[in-house]
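DM from R.C. (forwarded with permission)

"hey, sorry to bug you on a friday — could you get me a structure for this? deadline for the figure draft is monday and I only need the backbone to look sensible"
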Amino acid sequence: MLTKTTLTGTLVGFVFLFFSGWLFYDTLATDFFSQHYVNMPSQMSTNMNYIALGVLVEAYLLSYIYGQWANGNYNLRSGFKLGALLGLFAGLGINMITLGTVELMDIQGTVVDAVWNVTFFGIAGSLNGWVHQSLS
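My reply, with the result:
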C-alpha cells in the first residue's frame, strides 16, 4: 500500500494532475466553462488546501489501483487505459449525476469536462505506468 513505486507514482501524478488541472481550468478553459455554468454561484471561493488534498487522494488512488490492476504488466499503454477509465468514471459518470441533480453546468460543459478528464487521467495513468515500469 505504501511502496516506493506507489508513493513515487503518487508524487508524479500529483504534480501532473495539480498543475495541468490549474492550467486547464484556471487559464485555458475559464471562458468556456463560465459560459456553460447554469447554477454555479457567481462569487465562488476556492480553497487550495482542499483542492491539493483532493488531488493528492486522486493521485494516490490512481497509483495504488494501477499497481494492483496492471498485475506486473507496467507500461505507458496500460497506465493510460486505467487512467482513462477512471477519468470516464469521474468525468462522465459523476458529472452526469451532478447534471441530473444540481445542474452546475449544461450538457455541453459536462461533455467537454468528461473528455478533458479522460485525457487528463489517461496521461496521469501513463505516468504511473512509466514510474511502475522504471522502479519495478
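R.C.: lifesaver. The two ends are 15 Å apart (CA to CA).
me: no worries. The chain is about 80% helix and 0% strand.
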